[in-house]
Structure to design on (517 residues):
């Protein structure tokens, strides 16, 4: 893991009228590091990810990706970033191959044909190359989303609940693929999940968000004990139910 | 501006047509029916014998040009709606795709399908009713350019309205060609309109095309005195296109602030 930043967020804020969805948060993701962004529903995780993706404008603060300020350099930054999220649909009426071709062109991937062939192999999608995305099972679709997410060899990968609603076998396969990708490419990864054992297995560091603020930060394997909780899930529940007590 | 990214948006639409040829029906079938229907109406009107001009050339010719413009507008809107229905905005706009590249991709798709539709309409009108598009000679070129630019402008504007108000606002886009045709002089000369509506027609670029079309057909040539009128039509079309592009970009920026791009779905706005 390198200390130079894949992502550096400083005083990031997003307001919707009187509501502060993200409240002055600062954190970083190093190259090759997998950082878990945790918190109950509505904590501000997806809002933060959307701001890093450049599809939501912050009210204040700064987002730097690979030392480039996102504001004013969205297109350049987007070449080095990609993401997968359960709520971000791939065009269901295009085949797996067509989807990868369209997104490969959007990211201006060199030697696209070879890249697609390699991704189809890597994510076990070869037999579905001619199948429309809308006809894939959840597991197959998640693999397609991930293949799209790494098509441009991103140096910052954002994964918003990438294994939600998947069976343990597929989840494990996807975790392995992502860990292997981070190790091989030194990409920084920001990962949100509600599966705490997954977070312990994958993440180097976690951040707990509550009401738009970063409440806790640390090693997922020791953080629970630091706060007198038996495991990460117990800590998660405490963050969701009694965030103020944790801060005391 | 990246041509590869523009082509990606174009390819996405071409893949849709390849994957489901029934989609071609929506582009061509209604136009063919329109041409046949207006062909028979023109023939019937021409059968009265007192006509001083060829109804097929005047009415059917105008209909074909008008349908071309309407197809351009609706083609852009349809391609845009496709991305709404399949909820692609997050994936598209989180990529390096710029908004002007996205619009260019939609325009490229629409212009391609509209030109194909125009050629099919001309071929059917020629085979079934003896319509000869070349009778209007060089006039065809500036007319199509004006209608093309105006159609693109309207398509982008309507897409912007849907982008602002949500998918349910698509119904606003469908009748636009019909409403504008009242002021464009497609079916009758602008002089048939009452005073205030005649003044409004001057703001509708196609009115310059269809007024001039009648003069060209009556005189059998392309008189030079029509050039200023066509120039006004072209400038107005350009103005609307620039305005519509700014409008769409402003809505995009607004949606970036409000978070609508990430949450864009039916009735969400």
């Amino acid at each position: 893991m390198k200390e130079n930043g894949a992502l550096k967020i400083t005083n990031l804020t997003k307001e919707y009228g009187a509501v502060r969805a993200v409240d002055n948060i600062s954190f970083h993701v190093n190259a090759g590091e997998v950082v878990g962004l945790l918190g109950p529903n509505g904590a501000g995780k997806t809002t933060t990810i959307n701001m890093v993706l450049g599809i939501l404008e912050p009210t204040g603060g700064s987002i730097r990706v690979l030392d480039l300020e996102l504001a004013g350099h969205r297109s350049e930054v987007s070449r080095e970033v990609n993401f997968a999220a359960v709520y971000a649909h791939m065009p269901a009426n295009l085949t797996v191959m067509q989807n990868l071709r369209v997104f490969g062109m959007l990211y201006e991937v060199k030697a696209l044909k070879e890249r697609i062939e390699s991704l189809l192999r890597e994510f076990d999608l070869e037999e579905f190359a001619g199948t429309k995305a809308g006809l894939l099972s959840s597991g197959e679709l998640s693999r397609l989303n991930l293949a799209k997410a790494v098509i441009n060899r991103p140096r910052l990968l954002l994964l918003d609940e990438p294994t939600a609603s998947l069976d343990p076998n597929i989840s494990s396969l996807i975790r392995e693929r992502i860990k292997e990708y981070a190790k091989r490419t030194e990409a920084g990864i920001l990962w949100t999940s509600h599966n705490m054992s997954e977070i312990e297995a994958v993440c180097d560091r976690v951040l707990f968000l509550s009401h738009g603020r970063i409440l806790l930060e640390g090693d997922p394997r020791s953080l629970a004990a630091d706060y007198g909780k038996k495991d990460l899930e117990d800590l998660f529940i405490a963050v969701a139910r009694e965030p103020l007590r944790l801060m005391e | 501006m990246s041509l590869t990214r523009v082509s990606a948006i174009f390819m996405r639409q071409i893949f849709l047509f390849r994957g489901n040829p029934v989609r071609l029906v929506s582009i061509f079938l209604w136009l063919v029916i329109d041409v046949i229907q207006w062909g028979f109406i023109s023939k019937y009107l021409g059968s009265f014998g007192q006509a001083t001009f060829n109804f097929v050339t005047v009415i059917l010719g105008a209909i074909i040009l008008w349908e071309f413009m309407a197809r351009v507008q609706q083609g852009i809107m349809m391609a845009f709606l496709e991305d709404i229905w399949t909820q692609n905005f997050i994936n598209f706009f989180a990529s390096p795709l710029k908004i002007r590249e996205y619009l260019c991709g939609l325009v490229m798709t629409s212009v391609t399908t509209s030109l194909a539709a125009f050629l099919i309409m001309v071929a059917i009108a020629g085979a079934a009713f003896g319509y000869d598009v070349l009778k209007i000679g060089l006039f065809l070129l500036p007319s199509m350019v004006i209608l093309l630019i105006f159609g693109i402008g309207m398509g982008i504007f309507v897409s912007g309205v849907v982008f602002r108000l949500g998918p349910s606002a698509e119904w606003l886009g469908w009748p636009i060609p019909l409403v504008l045709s009242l002021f464009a002089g497609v079916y009758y000369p602008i002089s048939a309109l009452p005073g205030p509506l005649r003044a409004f027609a001057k703001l509708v670029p196609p009115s310059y095309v269809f007024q001039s079309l009648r003069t060209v057909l009556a005189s059998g040539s392309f008189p030079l005195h029509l050039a200023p009128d066509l120039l006004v039509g072209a400038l107005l079309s350009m103005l609307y296109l620039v305005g519509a592009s700014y409008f769409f970009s402003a809505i995009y920026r607004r949606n970036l602030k409000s978070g609508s791009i990430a949450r864009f779905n039916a009735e969400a706005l």
Summary: The mean pLDDT of chain B is 87.
